[in-house]
Design goal:
Order of helices and strands: HHHHHEEEEEEEEEE
Distance between the termini: 27 Å
Largest sheet: 5 strands, parallel
Radius of gyration: 20 Å
Shape: globular
Structural class: alpha/beta
Strand order of the largest sheet: 1-3-5-9-7
Helix content: 25-40%
Length: 245
């Protein structure tokens, strides 16, 4: 782990540590009668959602920002007196807002070019997806929210950014060529599931942070393989599965 990664991990630990301590203090205060009509679960969910909101702001992810705000409103609708817009109106507004902002500011979060395909591996034109020009060479980025997406990587890949929220994402590395024999995937999955399909001949190094989530491997990789994939990121209230094929 590089010094920069250690600093990031340390900063993240400090942030969540402070947030959880504040949540604990809020629970005690509520039990003393100072926060009427606020339950323990409401406080805990609010703490987690605030964490996701800050993370979205740091990473400039419109979807994570708007849906975090939407769920904060849903969880605290009585206290905020916003019951009239929960849950579906505020969720619909978050979805439309995310789509609209991404259309208006497509380069706000730098990402690679990608195609969305269905479960049969076809894009909307019924053709096998082919990667075109990317924003940053052999780097590619995916985002999915409230849906099911399948991504087939092909060509030279050095870095993958994958974000999944309240949905299901499947990413296939079976046809990918890793630049220089290695690549990194930085992933985030929250309230959903992500599955990576990786050749069993590869060496895979997993170092994910799991917050109320799980990471597991199905099958075995080759720890002495000449091709290496480094899996990093956050799994929150969801699951990550790595299948060796």
């Amino acid at each position: 782990m590089s010094k920069e990664e250690k600093k990031k991990k340390g900063a993240k630990s400090v942030f969540w540590g402070v947030l959880l301590i504040l949540g604990a203090a809020a629970i005690v205060v509520s039990k003393l009668g100072y926060l009427e009509d606020v339950g323990i679960w409401t406080i805990l969910f609010s703490v987690c959602l605030i964490g996701f909101l800050v993370n979205g702001l740091v990473k400039r992810s419109f979807g994570e920002i708007l849906f975090s705000i939407a769920f904060l409103i849903i969880v605290n609708d009585k206290m905020l007196q916003l019951e009239a817009i929960t849950p579906w109106p505020v969720l619909g507004a978050a979805l439309l807002g995310t789509i609209g902002l991404n259309l208006l500011f497509p380069h706000f979060k730098k990402r690679g070019h990608f195609v969305t395909v269905n479960m049969n591996g076809k894009n909307i034109n019924g053709k096998t997806p082919v990667f075109e020009e990317e924003w940053d060479g052999d780097r590619v980025s995916y985002e999915n929210a409230f849906g099911e997406a399948v991504k087939y990587l092909s060509g030279n890949i050095s870095h993958v950014d994958a974000s999944n929220a309240f949905g299901s994402m499947h990413i296939y590395f079976t046809d990918a060529q890793l630049t220089g024999g290695s690549a990194t995937i930085d992933l985030e999955t929250a309230f959903g599931s992500m599955v990576l399909y990786v050749p069993s001949s590869w060496k895979v190094v997993v170092s994910t942070d799991n917050a109320f989530g799980s990471t597991r491997e199905q099958g075995r990789c080759n720890p002495e393989g000449s091709t290496a994939l480094y899996v990093k990121g956050d799994v929150s209230f969801g699951s990550l599965k790595i299948r060796y094929v």
